[in-house]
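=== How it folds ===
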Amino acid sequence: MKSDDPSKSLRPFRPTRLGDLVRLGRPFDGGYIVNERAVQQSDYLLSFGINDDWSFEEGFRKRRPEAEILCFDHSVSQPILREQLLQNINSVLSARFVLGALSGNLQGVRNKFRALKRSRHVETDFAQFVSRRNVSFYSRGVSNASSAKFFTIDEIFHLIPRPDLREHCVFIKMDIEQYEFRVLPELPKYFRFLTGLVVEFHDLDILWTNFVDLMNQLSASFVVAHLHANNFCELIPNSKTPKLLEVTLLHRDLIKADEQELHAAVYPIPGLDQPNDFEKEDYVLEL
């Protein structure tokens, strides 16, 4: 049995707990741990990547009703979700579905109806979410180059009215499937405007050096407030570090000089963290 590779340790990024962590979003996958102070300080939430789950954004809105929520995702839109719903309707009406039902394939029938029910719920819920007064949705993602599919960080921050853009008024949620490694290097010029971030880092087995470089850059202005291993992916070989990691960061300016900092040696934190895949145990991070 090979020993753990110390070069892949998360110990250099051991979180600083400040007693105000809260979970926003649905149970299991889709929820994230953030600092309450960062939420309450923020006038804007920039959400990069929502796919078919905006429960974090809804949770943020409920805790900070006055905040403006700007969502960006090129992979989802009302036409896309409507097309998925129509495909599921046609699947249930198809001859193959009828033959499967007549042949006694009850599991297949249940799966088709389950998919139809979910796509109907997602399409309806999305329409309700983006129609809210303080929610703006853009069917473009975020990257380091502008295109018909992507905004740049500069373009996104220019969507915020200049009089509204002040120090520590923006929170960022980022789950953009490896594009975080393109976007985060563009962000330092806007650090002073941020209260915090929660970032899902992908493919750390092949992008570990990039991750370490970005974390070191972020540490100049932010503390790591929380770490959570996403158990949908494997661990990096010969290590206890996950390939998919959720990192919560809080701006250092929001920490009081006399505030007591707590450190937990083991994550997940009972009563706060939840496994992304509810059928599997959470990975344990010993820090």
